From TrEMBL, chain A:
It is found in: Cell membrane. It comes from Microcella alkalica. GO terms for cellular component: plasma membrane. Residues 90-339 form the ABC transmembrane type-1 domain. The chain crosses the membrane at residues 21-48, 94-113, 125-149, 212-237, 266-286, 322-343. Keywords: Cell membrane, Membrane, Sugar transport, Transmembrane, Transmembrane helix, Transport. This is Multiple sugar transport system permease protein.
TrEMBL record, chain B:
Residues 1-28 are annotated as: Disordered. It comes from Microcella alkalica. GO terms for cellular component: plasma membrane. Pfam families: BPD_transp_1. It is a multi-pass membrane protein. It is found in: Cell membrane. Residues 8-18 have a biased composition (Polar residues). Belongs to the binding-protein-dependent transport system permease family. The chain crosses the membrane at residues 36-57, 99-123, 135-156, 168-189, 210-231, 271-292. This is Multiple sugar transport system permease protein.
C-alpha cells in the first residue's frame, strides 16, 4: 500500500538513474491535457465572467472590456429578467435536490437490503435489473421517459386504470404546492407573498414546489441513480457480515429494531457518502434538461447549469453565463470540501483511501466525471 | 481498491460469496409465517424489478409499432402489427450510421488514450521518484472535485482559441485523460508489491520497458475497470459534444438523438423513430455491461471492503 510509495533513501546512481526524467515523461501527457483543457480554460472563463465579451472574435481581443463584478451583480442583486431567470433556476434546482437526494438514498438503501438477503434466489438478476438504468445514456433514458410520460403515455394509461387522470407531465408547469393549495381554493398569494423577494422571485413563487414537469425529471433521476447507490450500500452491508446479523437474531431483535438500531448506525459512513454525492450530483443536472429543452414547461425545469449554457451559447451573454457557472462552481466545491472534511474526521485513516475510491466510482456514474 | 480489482473469486455466481448456508437451512425449519414473509419479499422485489425493466421492454416494443399505435396503445408489450419502418428511416432519412461511426471512433480513441495516459501517470505518481511528484498528485486530487458541468463554457473557449472547435481533435483531445483515471491507477499500483519490478530494474531494463512488459500485465484488473468506465463514459458523453462542435457531420449518437427529440425532423411525435434510436445506441453499452457484469458490480462493491 502507501508504504511502497514512501520516499526511500537515495541509492546513488544505480537503478534510480534517470528516474526523474522518466517520471516527468510519464506524467507529461496527463498533466498537459489537464492543464490545457481544464486549468487554463477555467482561468479564461473567469476572465470572460468579468468582461463584456459578446461571443464575437476572441475573448482576449483588445475591444473586450473588463467590467468587474457587473455580470455577477446582474444575476444576483439587480432587478430584471436576468435576475429572475437565475432565481427561478435556483428555485427549480433546490426543489429537485430536496426531493431527489432523500428519495434516491432511501430507495437505494431499500433495494440494497432486499437484494442482500441471505436466502435470495436470482439475486444476480435483481441487481442487474436495478443497476441497468445507471449504465445507459441519459439521452436514451430521456427518450424513453418522454414516451412513457406523454399525455396518452404508458404512465397515464397505468394510473388511468386506477381512475386517476394523469397530467401532461413534461409540459405541465404547475408547482406541486400551488396545485395542492388550489385544491383548497387558494389560487393567488396574499399580498405579502406577491412582493418580489430573494433573487427577484416572490415568496409565492419560491413556495410553488417543483412543477409537474420537474417531478418527472425527479423520477427520472431516481430511476437512473438508485442502482449505483444500491451498489455502495450493498458493499457496506456485506462488510457488516453475517455474525452481527446472527447476534441480533439471538438477542431477539425484530426486523424493524434491527434495521434502525443495527443496520443504519453501521451504515453511517456510506449513508453520509451517498447523501453528499447525491447533493453534489444533483446540483449539476444538465443533460436531461438540455435534451428536453430547458425553456419548456414555462421555465420550471431550467437549472443554473442549464441557464449558464443557455445564457452563453443561445443568448450570447457570455459574461453572465460564465458568472453563473462560477457561482455554481464555488458552491459545489464548498459542498465537496465539507464532504472531504467530514469523511476525514469520521473515518479512521485507513478508510480515507476507500472513501475516495468509492466517491470516484459513484461520481462517474452519477454526474459529469468520466461520463 | 485492493478488493475492487481482485478478480472475482471462483464461486459460481460471484455475487453469492457472502451467502452463508446455515441461516438458509434454519429458515426452512421456521415454517409458515417465515415462508409467507419470504414470499412477500419476492413479490416486492419482482414488482420493483418490473418497474425498472418494463420501461425498456415497452420501448423496444414501441420502436416496432406504427406511430399511431405507439401513441394510442403505449402500455402494450406486443405490437399489433410489427413494422420496421422506424429502423428503416433511421438508416435512410436520418444520418444515424454517421452518428454511430463518430461515436465509435471517438470512444475507441478516447478509451485507448485514457487507459494508456492514465496508467502512465498513475505509475509515475505511485513508483517513480522525482521532484514535484507530491505537488502534481495534490493537484490531481484537487482537480477531482471540479464539477464536470461547469467546464462546458471554459472548454468551448479554449477550443475556439486553439482553432480546434468543430473538429475531431477538439472532440477527442480534452477527453484523453482524467484525474479520476490517474487516481484509480495510482491506487492500484500502490497496492501491488514493488519487488518484481526491482529485480527487472537491477537487470538493467529501462523504466518504460519495466512498465510496459512487467507492470502493465499485472495491472490488468485495474485496466479493465478503467476501460469500462472510459468506454461507457465517452459513449454516453453529451455535454462536451454540445460545446465542442456544431457541424451536423460531427454529430455523435448522443447529440444526434438529442436533436431527434427536439423534433428537427418533421412533425408528429415520432416515438417509434426516437425509441429505435435509443434502443440501438444502448446496445453496445448493454453488451459491455453484460460481458463485464461481475466486474462492474464488484468495482463499487469491492471498494468498501478495502
Amino acid at each position: 500500500m502507501a508504504v511502497n510509495a514512501a520516499p526511500r533513501p537515495r541509492r546513488g546512481g544505480g537503478i534510480r538513474r534517470g528516474e526523474a526524467r522518466a517520471g516527468w515523461l510519464f506524467i507529461a501527457p496527463a498533466v498537459f491535457i489537464t492543464a490545457v483543457f481544464l486549468v487554463i480554460p477555467i482561468a479564461l472563463a473567469l476572465w470572460v465572467s468579468m468582461s463584456d465579451w459578446n461571443g464575437f472574435q476572441s475573448p482576449l481581443n483588445p475591444r473586450v472590456n473588463f467590467v468587474g463584478l457587473e455580470n455577477y451583480a446582474a444575476i444576483t442583486v439587480e432587478d430584471g429578467l436576468d435576475q429572475r431567470n437565475f432565481g427561478t433556476a435556483v428555485r427549480n434546482n433546490l426543489y429537485y435536490v430536496l426531493l431527489v437526494v432523500p428519495l434516491q438514498t432511501i430507495i437505494s438503501l431499500l433495494l440494497a437490503i432486499q437484494v442482500n438477503r441471505a436466502a435470495l434466489r436470482g439475486r444476480g438478476f435483481f441487481r442487474t435489473a436495478f443497476y441497468f438504468p445507471s449504465v445507459t445514456s441519459t439521452v436514451a433514458i430521456v427518450v424513453v421517459f418522454q414516451f412513457l410520460f406523454t399525455a396518452s403515455g404508458a404512465v397515464n394509461a397505468a394510473i388511468g386504470a386506477l381512475g386517476i387522470r394523469g397530467p401532461d407531465w413534461f409540459n405541465d408547469s404547475t408547482g406541486l404546492v400551488h396545485g395542492a393549495l388550489s385544491a383548497f381554493g387558494i389560487d393567488s398569494p396574499s399580498p405579502a407573498l406577491a412582493e418580489p423577494g430573494f433573487l427577484g422571485i416572490s415568496g409565492w413563487e419560491w413556495l410553488a414546489g417543483p412543477s409537474v414537469a420537474m417531478t418527472s425529471l425527479i423520477i427520472l433521476a431516481i430511476f437512473t441513480t438508485s442502482g449505483t447507490f444500491m451498489l455502495l450500500f450493498l458493499a457496506a452491508l456485506q462488510s457488516i457480515g453475517s455474525e452481527i446479523d446472527e447476534a441480533t437474531l439471538m438477542d431477539g431483535a425484530g426486523p424493524f429494531r434491527k434495521f434502525f438500531s443495527v443496520t443504519v448506525p453501521m451504515l453511517r459512513p456510506t449513508l453520509f457518502t451517498v447523501l453528499t454525492l447525491g447533493l453534489i450530483g444533483s446540483w449539476q443536472v444538465f443533460d436531461q434538461i438540455y435534451v428536453i429543452g430547458g425553456g419548456s414547461a414555462g421555465g420550471t425545469i431550467s437549472t443554473p447549469a442549464f441557464l449558464a449554457y443557455r445564457s452563453s451559447f443561445v443568448d450570447l451573454q457570455w459574461g453572465q453565463g460564465a458568472a453563473i457557472a462560477f457561482i455554481l462552481f464555488v458552491f459545489i466545491i464548498l459542498l465537496t470540501l465539507v464532504q472531504r472534511w467530514v469523511l476525514k474526521e469520521r473515518t479512521p485513516r485507513k478508510r480515507n483511501r476507500v472513501a475516495a475510491t468509492e466517491k470516484i466510482a459513484a461520481n462517474d456514474s452519477t454526474s459529469g466525471g468520466l461520463r | 481498491m485492493t478488493a475492487a480489482v481482485t478478480p472475482a473469486t471462483g464461486t459460481k455466481s460471484g455475487s453469492s460469496i457472502r451467502t452463508p448456508e446455515r441461516p438458509f437451512r434454519r429458515k426452512k425449519q421456521i415454517g409458515g409465517r417465515a415462508r409467507a414473509n419470504i414470499l412477500l419479499g419476492y413479490l416486492i422485489l419482482i414488482g420493483l424489478a418490473l418497474i425498472y425493466i418494463y420501461p425498456f421492454l415497452i420501448s423496444i416494443s414501441a420502436s416496432l409499432k406504427t406511430d399511431a399505435e405507439a401513441t394510442q396503445n403505449a402500455l402494450s408489450l406486443i405490437p399489433d402489427t410489427i413494422t420496421y419502418a422506424a429502423y428503416e428511416r433511421l438508416f435512410g432519412d436520418v444520418p444515424f450510421p454517421q452518428w454511430a461511426g463518430n461515436t465509435l471512433l471517438i470512444s475507441v480513441v478516447v478509451t485507448t488514450g485514457r487507459v494508456f495516459f492514465d496508467s502512465l501517470a498513475g505509475y509515475a505518481l505511485s513508483r517513480l521518484q522525482f521532484r514535484g511528484r507530491t505537488v502534481v498528485f495534490v493537484a490531481f486530487i484537487a482537480i477531482l472535485s471540479v464539477p464536470g458541468v461547469v467546464l462546458l463554457i471554459p472548454r468551448f473557449l479554449i477550443l475556439q482559441q486553439l482553432g480546434l472547435y468543430d473538429t475531431y481533435g477538439g472532440m477527442i483531445i480534452p477527453l484523453l485523460s482524467t484525474a479520476a483515471g490517474v487516481f484509480i491507477m495510482k491506487q492500484f499500483f500502490d497496492s501491488i508489491p514493488v519487488s518484481i519490478e526491482e529485480a527487472a530494474r537491477i537487470d538493467g531494463a529501462s523504466t518504460f520497458r519495466v512498465f510496459w512488459t512487467i507492470v502493465l500485465p499485472m495491472a490488468r484488473p485495474a485496466l479493465v475497470t478503467l476501460f469500462i468506465l472510459s468506454f461507457q463514459g465517452s459513449w454516453n458523453e453529451l455535454g462536451h459534444f454540445i460545446v465542442s462542435r456544431q457541424s451536423p457531420e460531427l454529430n455523435t449518437l448522443t447529440t444526434g438523438v438529442a436533436s431527434l427529440v427536439s423534433g428537427q425532423l418533421g412533425s408528429g411525435n415520432q416515438f417509434p423513430l426516437q425509441l429505435a434510436a435509443a434502443v440501438l445506441m444502448t446496445i453496445p453499452v448493454a453488451v459491455l455491461f453484460f460481458i463485464f457484469q461481475r466486474r462492474i458490480m464488484n468495482t463499487t462493491a469491492g471498494a468498501e471492503k478495502g
